[in-house]
Write a structure and sequence with these properties.
This protein is α/β, with parallel strands linked by helices and 287 residues long. The protein has 6 helices and 12 strands. The strands form 3 sheets. It has a 5-stranded parallel beta sheet with strand order 3-2-6-1-7, with helices on both faces. Strands 8-9-12-10-11 form a 5-stranded mixed beta sheet, with helices on one face. It has a two-stranded antiparallel sheet with strand order 4-5. It is elongated, with a radius of gyration of 21 Å. The termini are far apart.
Length: 287
């Protein structure tokens, strides 16, 4: 996969941000931290702004799942710090990461916190934003393409369809005993549920959804490594998910009527069963 080729002003230096509100060339500039979304994995899905900041960084604190094709865009002069998980084990706590952001902002002018997908969706950005604000450190958020949108695009599935789905819910699967499913929010048959980080045991997720009164026949699409060269997907149902071997991480689940449209041969008559309503489970809890 080729690296992005971006236009720039004639004679502009590689770090010349067109229209940006900061100056990398001034030796008197204060430090600035950038929380950047790296997107789902394909480097060509990085925004132009994200790439330009990344290529001018002094230090980059990145998640472990950021691929080599994106990490290779970081200049060799920049320090790289892996602050993510390895095989499900977190090497650093969020407090450790916050401390690293603050300490590096004291030493460098351009500090990048590089997160997969979009930093504001299940990226723990709120805790880092709070730490930066309390330390009175200037920061900026550069959004990225969230894994949900990258996965839906890779599968050629629209998350909404006025005939099938008018609501989208983004959630994560939690194994905590006190976890509940959408407290106070009722799902309907026209809701698409995107489950981030389903973990290695899909049977647990299947039970979790069914405990929340999601119909066992509800279509599910498991999408692994969306936008990567080795991306893969598997179509099943909520009940069938319990027998599905996990696909390589990172993976997510698209649950709902629209997931059935991933099969090119599906027709409107094939979707008659979708007219059935599902029970109201606004007060359901995960046991």
């Amino acid at each position: 996969m080729s690296k992005p080729i971006l236009p720039k002003k004639p004679g502009a230096a590689p770090c010349d941000f067109q229209g940006a509100d900061f100056d990398f060339s001034s030796s008197t500039s204060h430090a600035k931290v950038f929380l950047i979304g790296a997107g789902p994995g394909d480097p060509e899905l990085l925004t132009i702004k994200a790439l330009r900041i990344l290529q001018s960084a002094d230090v980059v604190l990145h998640d472990s799942l950021i691929g080599s094709e994106i990490l290779n865009l970081i200049p060799k002069t920049a320090e790289r710090i892996d602050v993510g998980k390895r095989a499900g084990f977190r090497l650093l706590t969020q407090q450790d990461i916050n401390a690293l952001l603050l300490s590096n902002a004291a030493k460098h002018k351009i500090v990048v916190r590089l997160k997969g997908g979009d930093p504001l969706l299940f990226g723990r950005a709120a805790e880092e934003i709070q730490a930066l604000r309390e330390a009175n450190i200037d920061f900026e958020i550069v959004p990225g393409i969230s894994a949900a949108f990258g996965a839906a695009a890779a599968a050629k599935v629209s998350l909404t369809d006025r005939r099938l789905s008018s609501h989208v819910l983004f959630t994560t699967f939690s194994r905590a005993p006190e976890a509940n499913f959408l407290p106070g929010i009722g799902l309907t048959a026209d809701t698409t549920v995107v489950v981030y980080m389903p973990g290695p045991d899909y049977a647990e997720v299947s039970r979790w959804l069914q405990d929340a009164a999601v119909s066992p026949d509800t279509p599910v699409l498991v999408i692994s490594k969306a936008s990567h060269r080795d991306q893969s997907q598997h179509a099943t149902t909520v009940a069938g998910l319990g027998h599905q071997a996990p696909l390589p991480a990172p993976a997510l689940l698209l649950v709902g009527r629209v997931a059935a449209s991933a099969a090119d041969t599906t027709t409107a008559t094939d979707l008659n069963w979708l007219n059935e309503s599902i029970p109201d489970f606004s007060n359901s809890r995960i046991s």
